[in-house]
Amino acid sequence: MSRSRAVLAVLAVLVLVSACGTQRSDGPGTPGTPTPSASEGLPASLDEARARWADAGIADYRLLVTPQCFCIPVTVDVEVVDGVAGEPLVSAAAPDIGEIPPGAADSVPLTVPALLDVVAGADGAAALEVTYDRRGVPLRIWIDRSEQMIDEEIGYAVVLVAPEGARPEPAGVWSVAPWPGGEAPQELPGPSAPARAAYADGRVHLAFWGSSSCPARPVTLDPVEAPTARAGQRTVLVAADETSPPDRACTADYGPTSYAAELAGGVDLVLVEMATGAGDAPGLTSYAVDVAA
Fold it and tell me: What 3-state DSSP class applies to 242?
C-alpha cells in the first residue's frame, strides 16, 4: 500500500545520557563502547541485527519511538535500565491533535529487542522494509501486512540515545553552506527535532539546530548499502559531533546551522550518529533523516 496515509516520522531531541563504571574516550575516534566501522556496513538481516545489538552490549539507553500509521500521532519516550523499560512518556508528534487518549501508545515497542521482535513478527507480510543502524537498532520500520487491505500499514521511526559514543575523526568533507534556495530552514521538522536534510545540484545538505556559537557539525559522509530497506533506497551514514567545547562558553540561542558536501547520485535517507555531551566522555544519539528533493 502507499505510504501517503501514514503520519510522517518525527525525530526527537538530542539527549545526553550519563554513564558510569565504563572506560571512556579520551580523544576523537576512540569509543568507550566498540563501534562498528563504516566499512562493515549495515546489518543485512534480522539475525545480523540481533547479533550486532548483542555485541554492542548496551543495557542502559533511551528510546524515542514514533509510530507511523493511520492513528493518533504520538512519540513515546522511554528510559531502559539494565534492559528493562521504565514508564513511558507519551507526547504529541504533531501540532493541534488535542488531548491524547489513554492507551494511545500501549502497543508501541519500548526496547530494542522488542523492536526487533516486531520485525520478526512481520515475516510473510506483503512488504517489510527496515533500515538498521550499525549497532542493529531498527531506526525505520515499515510493514504492510496485506495488499488487499487499506490503512493497516504500520511503521516506526526510532531515535536511540546511548551513554557511550565516539567523537569522529575530522574528514574535511563538509563545509558551512547556504541551504538550497538561500536561507536555512527555520521551521523544525517535528517537536524539538534536531535535523533536516536535502539534496540539490550534486550536494547533500544537513541542518542541525542548537547554539550558533557551538553548533553540531557533520564530520564524515559514507554511502552505505541498506539491504533490508526499501528497494533502491540510497542511504548515507554521517558521523557528527555536538560535544561541548572545553575552552569556551556556548551562547543560549537555538537555531539552524546548515552544511553541504559533494555527493553524486542523490540520497534518500541520512543516518546520523551524533556524538553528544562532554568531549572526553561522549554520548551517542542515532537517528534517520528523510531527504527532501
Answer: strand
Could you report the per-residue pLDDT of 66-125, keeping only the tens digit for each?
998 877 888 999 999 999 999 999 988 777 777 888 887 888 999 999 999 999 999 889
Q: Between β-strands 281-292 and 154-162, what pairing exists: parallel, antiparallel or unpaired? A: antiparallel
**258-293 confidence digits (pLDDT tens):** 999 999 999 999 999 999 988 778 999 999 999 987
User: In terms of C-beta density within 10 A (0-12 exposed, 13-18 middle, 19 or more buried), how is residue 1 classed?
Assistant: middle
Which residue bears the cell 526496547?
111
What angle separates helix 46-56 from helix 112-121, to the nearest 10 degrees?
Answer: 170
Length of the chain: 293
- Cα four-point dihedral sign 9, 54, 106, 61: negative
Look at the block and give the residue holding cell 512519540.
75
Nearest Cα residue to 19 out of 30, 7, 32, 29: 32
Q: Per residue in 153-199, pLDDT tens? A: 899 999 999 998 889 998 899 999 999 988 777 676 654 457 999 99
pLDDT digits (tens, 9 = 90+) for 13-60: 333 333 333 332 333 443 445 556 656 789 999 999 999 999 999 999
Q: What is the dihedral of CA 232, 193, 111, 80, to 10 degrees?
A: 150
User: How many other C-beta atoms are found inside a 10 Å radius of the C-beta of residue 14?
Assistant: 24
**22-37: buried (b, 16+ CB within 10 Å) or exposed (e) per residue?**
eebbeebeebbbebbe
Distance CA 143, CA 65 (A): 15
Closest-CA residue to 284 (of 227, 239, 245, 250): 239
